[in-house]
């Protein structure tokens, strides 16, 4: 059974008619998750609204105040920009807080033993949001907040795996230098936001695997197996968090990698196997990118359907 946390506000957050991070993304995923083979495995729950204290686990009071102040200036139907890409509409603050609440509640569910797998079907995404600022469609950083929430709950070693086509600079900033936290990212490089180079790696804390444009399914899986899995095995996480972005799909308009649904099924299976080996199966994934509406739903369904192979 996989718990799916979502909320209507995450459907209503609307950065504008031509924005790639639009409500159609969630509709595409919700449709795909109705597949008969998958539907009985999913339990849908309302995401609770995250608290300001939860936001402050990863962000400064100044960043929170900027968002709250801008939100207070969003009148009905209007929008305000946090940065050129990151737009607040009248549902955005609630949606961003629901994403935070989903991630924290999901961690609580895993730590208490209520569930072994959680998927946060929320937007806006989060992995570009740094401790001090919003950027790249991201207001707050739910996966980083979830890592700190897990530590508060007594989990000593938490790994975040990020397979979005973009480097999660915000998550790296939040987790860098923190004991007991590992951030692992595969991403296209060079590409937005320009970070995630191998020289930024820190043993046992940060591992970036930059990949050239055009990377294929076979090459991706081979490098993930040879380079990422040993880092995870050495760290022995007690909880596995995933920044699940699907914009490394070959048809995605914002990325240049060439993966298809089969690699998302493979990633689901592989990360589930890591969780079973090290984390008592405890796995929480947070939706990040994915901007081709035909590819996104099937990619998420493939990820959630992937069965754990023997290791
Ligand atoms: Zn992305």
Please describe the topology of this protein:
Elements: E1 2-6, H1 8-12, H2 24-32, E2 42-46, H3 52-55, H4 61-72, E3 80-83, E4 86-88, H5 92-112, E5 117-120, H6 142-152, E6 158-162, H7 169-175, E7 181-188, E8 206-211, H8 217-235, E9 239-244, H9 261-278, E10 283-287, H10 293-305
Parallel strand pairs: 1-2, 1-5, 5-10, 6-7, 6-9, 7-8, 9-10
Antiparallel strand pairs: 3-4
Zinc ion binds at residues 164-166, 245, 247, 288-289.
Order of helices and strands: EHHEHHEEHEHEHEEHEHEH
Distance linking N and C termini: 22 Å
CATH superfamily: Histone deacetylase domain
According to DSSP, the number of beta strands is: 10
Q: Report strand order across the widest sheet.
A: 2-1-5-10-9-6-7-8
Name the structural class: alpha/beta
Predict the CATH topology.
Answer: Arginase, Chain A
Radius of gyration: 17 Å
Most strands sheet: 8 strands, parallel
CATH architecture: 3-Layer(aba) Sandwich
| Ligands (ions, cofactors included) | zinc ion
Average pLDDT metric: 96
Structure annotation, total helices: 10
Classified by CATH, the class is: Alpha Beta
Helix % is 25-40%
* Number of separate structural domains: 1
What form results from the Cα inertia axes? globular
The percent range for strand residues is 15-25%
**Which ranges are low-confidence, i.e. pLDDT below 50, for 5 or more consecutive residues?**
none
């Amino acid at each position: 059974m996989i718990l799916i946390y979502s909320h209507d506000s995450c459907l209503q957050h609307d950065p504008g008619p031509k924005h790639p991070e639009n409500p159609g993304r969630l509709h595409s995923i919700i449709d795909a998750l109705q597949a008969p083979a998958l539907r009985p495995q999913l339990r849908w729950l309302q995401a609770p609204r995250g608290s300001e204290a939860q936001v402050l686990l990863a962000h400064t009071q100044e960043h929170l105040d900027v968002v709250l102040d801008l939100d207070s200036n969003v009148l009905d139907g209007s929008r305000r920009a946090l940065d050129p890409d990151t737009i607040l509409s009248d549902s955005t603050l609630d949606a961003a807080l629901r994403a935070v609440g989903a991630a924290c509640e999901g961690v609580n569910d895993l730590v208490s033993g209520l569930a072994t797998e959680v998927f946060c079907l929320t937007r806006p995404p989060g992995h570009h949001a740094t401790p001090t600022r919003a950027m790249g469609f991201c207001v707050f950083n739910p996966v980083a907040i979830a890592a700190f929430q897990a530590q508060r709950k007594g989990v000593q070693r938490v790994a975040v795996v990020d397979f979005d086509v973009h480097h999660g600079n915000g998550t790296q900033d939040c987790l860098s230098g923190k004991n007991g936290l590992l951030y692992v990212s595969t991403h296209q490089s060079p590409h937005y936001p320009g970070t995630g180079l191998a020289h930024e790696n820190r043993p046992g804390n940060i591992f970036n695997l930059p990949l050239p444009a055009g990377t294929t399914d076979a090459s991706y899986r081979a490098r993930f197996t040879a380079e990422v899995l040993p880092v995870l095995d050495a760290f022995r996480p007690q909880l596995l968090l995933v920044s699940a972005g699907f914009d490394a799909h070959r048809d995605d308009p914002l990325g240049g990698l060439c993966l298809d649904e089969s690699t998302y099924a493979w990633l689901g299976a592989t990360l589930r196997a890591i969780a079973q080996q090290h984390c008592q199966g405890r796995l929480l994934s947070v939706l990040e990118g994915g901007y081709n509406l035909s590819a996104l739903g099937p990619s998420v369904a493939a990820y959630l359907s992937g069965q754990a192979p023997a290791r």
